[in-house]
What we know:
The protein is an alpha/beta fold and about 260 residues long.
Amino acid sequence: xxxxxxxxxxxxxxxxxxxxxxxxxxxxxxxxxxxxxxxxxxxxxxxxxxxxxxxxxxxxxxxxxxxxxxxxxxxxxxxxxxxxxxxxxxxxxxxxxxxxxxxxxxxxxxxxxxxxxxxxxxxxxxxxxxxxxxxxxxxxxxxxxxxxxxxxxxxxxxxxxxxxxxxxxxxxxxxxxxxxxxxxxxxxxxxxxxxxxxxxxxxxxxxxxxxxxxxxxxxxxxxxxxxxxxxxxxxxxxxxxxxxxxxxxxxxxxxxxxxxxxxxx
Length: 265
């Protein structure tokens, strides 16, 4: 039996680190990313790293929020996994999409505020798409007993920063979807959890105007005198995914993986 992981946002940050760590543990990797030609060289390096670990790497350079592309990827996973071994199973599905608008909701200059299209796009990519992917994977018979579904959230879901409003709303919605999906998938022994990482220096974070201040504050609050890394998150996911014992009872949670960064003092 071959075991697989599907990772949305595989070309950088948490997705990249998790793909490599799960591959190191023997999982074959399906990855979805959206990169221009200039970024494809780095994507190829990630694929080569995964394949050097003795497992398969099959990547799709498509918009994960596009319904037609999502349908294509799901059908390809069905075809590729099923053609090799009918007992193949999707062990991990990681939703790690970080693409949204960073604009204020209110401004004296109306042209600078987030538009309806931008707000809806942010919610669709970073939150709604989680539901659509789970629906399609479940209906395709790819989410089975023992599968672990993870979504990447952040402290921004309950905090405020300048220009972060649209992303904050998306993270809040994502956490709500995680709870509801956990509830509805529990009878199928499929777990769904959100991972709340500490502030991590990733390409997505660096696009936030207040990123330097966020990094400085996080480092000051750190209990270990360092920031969270993508590898910290990858190790956590792999620890659960590669355990010989399934634990569907661990579901519906927002799990802090932050080295104690968000502890109250």
